[in-house]
Known about the structure:
Blueprint: H1 4-38, H2 50-53, H3 56-67, H4 71-90, H5 93-113, H6 118-126, H7 129-139, H8 142-162
Amino acid sequence: MSGPRSRIRLAMVVLAATGLVTLGAVAAWTVAMAQHQHTPSMQGMEKPDWLVKLAPAARTEAIQRQLRGFETTMVEVAYRYTEMYWGGMDGNWEYAAHMHEELGKALALGLERRPVYRKSAEQLFLKGAFVQVGEAIQKKDAALFKERIETLRASCSACHVAEKHAFIKIAVPTVRHNPIEKP
């Protein structure tokens, strides 16, 4: 067994193993380099100090432009409404309550930025249907929640009509955005 054929066979096995290890190392290096090239980096980019470069008097207007009026508020409200809806429909009352609270915060901040919408929001939404759906959530009453969510939808659409956005009619959510487990 210790003849020339055994030695040749051993040398071939060692050579094949060395080749496989080298091939694996090259593949790993290639993947690492590809990932490095796609990693975001600030190198070669300007520092994100665009705001401080502006004159103090121009900063407020620049921030308002970035927040884009009330539409960014409405994007968050739509998200929170959808999540609150699914929380209530699933009987996940803590999640529904959390989304209700966050929806209220989003509207409060939006109305702070755009007070022109406050009158309609308070009369048609915040002081009525929004409070009522919150009460249904607190009671953990599925039937009452379904009733109140319909009132809330109508109130949202009425507010849109009052603000000359009648083309925005709120529907019952059909798509879940988050993979939240049902209780």
